[in-house]
Amino acid sequence: MKSYELVCHDDDPKWLSYRFDHITASEMSAVMERCPWAAREDILRRKVTRSDDFKPTRNMWWGSELEKFNMEMFTKITGIRTRSCNAFLRSTKEPLIAATLDGFALNPRKDYDTLDIATKKPWAEELRAVLRNRSGLGLIEMKNTESWFAKKWHEAPPEHYVIQLQQQLYVTGLDWGILCAKLGAGDMIAYLIDADPLLHEEMEIDARSIWKEIKNERRELEQHFDRT
Predict the structure, then answer these.
(1) Which of 25, 20, 6, 12 minimizes the C-alpha distance to 170?
(2) pLDDT (tens digit, 9 = 90+) per residue, 43-57?
(3) Which sign, positive or negative, has the C-alpha torsion 101, 207, 159, 58?
(4) Shortest CA distance to 4 belongs to which of 170, 198, 137, 161?
(5) Of 28, 34, 53, 143, which residue is most buried, by most CB within 10 angstroms?
(6) DSSP 175
(7) Residue pair 140/104 in contact by the 8 Å Cβ criterion
(8) Which helix (H) or strand (E) holds 167?
(9) From CA 49, how far away is CA 32, in angstroms rounded?
(10) Using one digit for the tens of pLDDT, what is the confidence trace for 119-150?
(11) Cβ atoms of 226 and 116 closer than 8 Å
């Protein structure tokens, strides 16, 4: 049995409405109260009212528009093959938990000369070396950010993005993924992230907890409108 089932692709007109009935990967860090820009209450309100006043940022727009190109540049720099996906999937183990995938990653091409000229710090060969100890298919999650965030990205991948990728791994049942960020106009960095079963258990607990609140508040809202 697959660990996931397809809900839709992100060009489906009902994509947003499907999101209201799941906890998505980009929302989980807020549900777990580990997100720097959104709170658990924000997710609760969106799900209860089935409305979303969230406005995409400039970086999100550019990230979406350049996602395929940036993924191709990642492959060109590293020799690690990728394939776009953009499918909205939900877990068969816990159907509340869902994720939209950017794409898949495969083992590196052999004897490939990495393009260290394209990155401020050389990391591609080290990533390739670590990947040689991994087998099968992995995921890739692409991010796009300003150059002034590069220092933080070079120190470590932001926790809320790691949680996002971990949820994608949970849904797909895959063992590893790559979190890659395009940093401003002339830099890129990527990290290998292994599946974390303990974190996945936390996700399940937090998703069930908030969904219990969502169901109760939706019921109260419906009863309120029935009385008026």
Answers:
(1) 25
(2) 999 999 998 776 667
(3) positive
(4) 170
(5) 28
(6) S
(7) yes
(8) helix 159-172
(9) 20
(10) 999 999 999 999 988 888 999 999 999 988 89
(11) no
Q: Which helix (H) or strand (E) holds 203?
A: helix 197-227
C-alpha torsion 166→170→172→177, nearest 10: 30
Encoded tokens for 131: 């990947």
Tokens of 56: 């995409």
Q: Nearest Cα to 4, choosing from 81, 100, 142?
A: 100
Q: Which residues contact 227 (CB under 8 A, 6 or more apart)?
A: none
Mean pLDDT of the 166-186 span: 96
Q: Does residue 183 contact residue 147 with C-beta atoms inside 8 Å? A: yes
For residues 181 and 161, give the distance between their C-alpha atoms in angstroms, rounded to a whole number.
10
Mention every residue, 6+ apart, whose C-beta is less than 8 A from residue 65.
Answer: none
Measure the CA–CA gap between 28 and 44, rounded to whole angstroms: 11
Measure the CA–CA gap between 75 and 82, rounded to whole angstroms: 7
Distance of alpha carbon 187 from alpha carbon 31, whole angstroms? 31
pTM of the model: 0.93
First to last CA, the chain: 46
Radius of gyration (C-alpha) of the chain in whole angstroms: 19
DSSP 176: E
User: CA-CA distance, 155 to 126, in Å (whole number)?
Assistant: 15
